[in-house]
């Protein structure tokens, strides 16, 4: 019985690998150098959120068990955010409040980006990204083009490919 606690859960391992690939894609230097995402805690949250939103959008369109994968992937994201807050020294009593704000921010961004991504509205997506990522009214045109290209690319993947090799995101420098 006790040894079952030490066995690797293949599902959890697969989700962890998928999340790691998404997180790695959100840290590509070109996002910060070429597309000017601020290299700050907030900027890295924005980059990770954008890549998570793009991956979750694709999972919504795929057949079962993609819905379960999306739920597990979202759980992995929020566990990572919780762990990051704790690593930064946020106290146990404050973490739940911060997590609530993070969740509101994440889901607000998902809602703001969904419509423009669905319709391919570069201007609306650039405006939303500009407000969220850059904190200004200046549109993030390059970042919007990157997100639209990533969204189109993810639509070509099936669940096995997504879980096996992970999502493939374009090179940010191409959109600078």
Automatic annotation (TrEMBL):
PANTHER family for the chain: UBIQUINOL-CYTOCHROME C REDUCTASE COMPLEX ASSEMBLY FACTOR 1 FAMILY MEMBER (PTHR12184), UBIQUINOL-CYTOCHROME-C REDUCTASE COMPLEX ASSEMBLY FACTOR 1 (PTHR12184:SF1)
A Pfam match: Ubiq_cyt_C_chap
InterPro entries referenced in this protein's UniProt entry, alphabetically: Ubiq_cyt_c_chap, Ubiqinol_cyt_c_chaperone_CPB3, Ubq_cyt-c_CBP3-rel
Protein family membership: Belongs to the UPF0174 family. Belongs to the CBP3 family.
Signal sequence segment: none
Annotated Ubiquinol-cytochrome c chaperone domain residues: 34-169
This protein's name: Cytochrome b pre-mRNA-processing protein 3
Phylogenetic lineage: Bacteria, Pseudomonadati, Pseudomonadota, Alphaproteobacteria, Hyphomicrobiales
